[in-house]
Write a structure and sequence with these properties.
- With 216 residues, the chain is mainly alpha-helical.
- The chain has one domain.
- Helix content is 78%, strand content 0%.
- It contains 9 helices and no strands.
- The chain has helices at residues 5-22, 25-31, 35-47, 52-68, 72-96, 101-122, 126-143, 148-168, 176-203.
């Protein structure tokens, strides 16, 4: 039964956003580590198999926990976990269906432009961010080959991490923390639910056309 998982994810998201708004570390520790596991439970209830999206959610959980710990070492550990998330999602999406070439080119242009703008402000983080953001951009491009919902999720994931990159570069926008978490939560939700819909549809056998003159 998969019904409770998405409402629980919605509740955990609200609690997490309240924690961000109030700058309450305790509240964030309570809610943020639950986001990806709740979606993983939903995915398992719907698919009953381990695939790239499931692996991605496991490492997203580890990344979320790492990013709750202050300091550059924890930040790099979190980035490493999310790198595995992006690679796992990328592999799953490419195995499902190849994306349009135009989408891949567009995301590569965005990747190159964003890194060119941030190069002088990230310092020692620039090289790790360069590699991670490439995997992220390729994942978002590959998501366009799965479904519209998954494509929007991939784009939101890219947008959320771009905001984190801006913060690491010392560029802070009003309500940036809330924007990061709301877009991230929406990205996970859209990717997971869209993946379930797309893969279940692909697994469903095509109806057999029968010759109208054939005798049953």
């Amino acid at each position: 039964m998969r019904r409770p998982w998405l409402p629980l994810f919605g509740l955990a998201t609200v609690v997490e956003l309240v924690g961000v708004a109030l700058d309450s570390t305790a509240t964030e520790w309570l809610a943020k580590p639950l986001l990806a596991p709740l979606l993983l439970a939903y995915l398992w209830s719907a698919r009953r198999r381990v695939d790239g999206v499931a692996v991605g959610l496991v490492f997203a959980t580890a990344g979320d926990v790492a990013l709750l710990v202050p300091g550059q070492t924890a930040f790099l550990a979190g980035m490493g976990c999310f790198l595995v998330t992006q690679l796992a999602l990328l592999t799953a999406f490419l195995r499902h269906r190849r994306p349009p070439v135009v989408a891949a080119l567009a995301y590569l242009v965005v990747w190159a432009g964003a890194n060119a703008l941030l190069q002088g402000t990230l310092g020692a983080l620039w090289l790790p961010v360069l590699g991670y953001s490439l995997a992220l951009s390729l994942m978002a491009a590959a998501a366009t080959g799965v479904s519209r919902r998954v494509a929007i999720g991939g784009a939101l994931f890219l947008g959320s991490d771009l905001l984190i990159g801006l913060g690491a570069a010392g560029i802070h926008l009003p309500g940036q923390g809330l924007l990061v978490m709301s877009t991230y939560a929406a990205a996970l939700l859209l990717i997971t639910t869209g993946w379930v819909t797309a893969t279940n549809a692909a697994d469903r056998p095509s109806p057999v056309r029968r010759d109208p003159l054939q005798i049953a």
